[in-house]
Each structure stands twice: as C-alpha cells, then as structure tokens.
Amino acid sequence: MQRKKLEGNGLWESSRMMLPQHTQRILEHQRETLRREKPVLDAQEWDLIDQALYHSMADHAPVTLTLFDPFVDRQAKGIVMKVDRQLKRIKLRWSEDDWDWVDMSEIIAATT
User: Fold this and answer.
1) All domains of the chain, ordered by start, with CATH?
2) Staple partner for 76: which of 11, 18, 30, 65, CB 3.0–4.6 Å?
3) 50: number of Cβ within 10 Å
4) How far apart are CA 112 and CA 105, in angstroms?
C-alpha cells in the first residue's frame, strides 16, 4: 500500500526541505494566533487598583500588580514608593536597592 504525499500532517509530509525563512514565518504566525486583546477596566476596577496602590504607599505594605502582556500576563511584587499622576506611572521597589517605573496603562489588577 502506497501513502499519498499529503497524508499525515499535509504540507510538512510533502516538503522534505523548507527554507529557514518559511519555518520562521510559520512559527511567528502560530505565535500571533495566541495574541490577546487588552481588557478594558471600568471605573470600579480602577478604584480598587488605586486603593491598593495608596495602601501600599501609605503603609509600606507589599502589593502584587498584574501587568498586561499580549501573550502572558506578568506579575510585579513590591512596595509603591511614588505615584506620578502626570506621567501616569508608579515607582515600585521590590528590594532594598532595586526599583523600577511601571506604566499605569499596563496594570490590569492589584492586590495587597
């Protein structure tokens, strides 16, 4: 019994050789199908985030921020040192000597 070229997984079976550019493009396309849209936060959710940031800054309590990424959300844990409302960013310290600015547009959730 003879198998046809397009049996199994189709294109991959019939093509014994693929250019690296084609393989890279196929992998990029597969990754792009996993891309997510950023959720739109309502006023109540922003109030909860604002309260968590204020509590962290006032009491020097740690806060966990969920930051949006098109593929996998990231977590940032630390203490809020400063809120810059004009540039819409916060200064988050995660160790004694290490801190970074986080854009408020990336924040989708905050918990204390």
Assistant:
1) 43-111 (2.30.30.100)
2) 65
3) 13
4) 19
Residue type at 112 in one-letter notation? T
Three-state secondary structure call for residue 15: coil
The pLDDT of residue 94 is above 70: yes
Kindly tell me if the per-residue pLDDT of 93 is higher than 90: yes
Q: List 63's β-bridge partners, or say none.
A: 78
**pLDDT for res 3:** 57
Q: Which strands form 74-84's sheet, in the order they lie side by side?
A: 99-103, 89-93, 74-84, 63-67, 107-111
Count of H-run helices and E-run strands, the chain: 3, 5
* ∠ Cα 92 103 66 (to 5°): 70
Residue with the two structure tokens 């070229």: 5
Tokens found for residue 101: 């600015």
